[in-house]
Amino acid sequence: MTRENASGSTDGSRSTRDDDPERRDGSTRIGDPQSACDDTDADRYRHLIEHVQDAVVEFEFVDGTPIVRDTNRAFVDVFGYSADEIRGESLNEWVVPAWNRSEAAALDENTASGEINYQKVTRKTKHGLREFLYRGVPYNTRSEEDAGGERDAANGDDADDREAISGGDDADGDRTGGFAVYTDLTEISRNERRLKVLNRILRHNLRNNANVVAGHTTRLLAAIPDGDEKTVEAAATVERAAHELERLADEAGHIRTVLQQRPDEDTHVDPAPLVQSVVDDRRKRSPNATIEVEIAGSGTVLADSRLRYAVESLVDNAIKHNPSATPRVRVRIERATDSVETNPTAPETDDHGHDGISSDEWVIIHIEDDGPRIPPHERDVIRDGEEITPTHHGSGLGLWLTQLTVETFGGDLTFDTSDLGGNDVSIRLRHRASE
Question: pTM of the full predicted structure?
Answer without folding.
Answer: 0.52
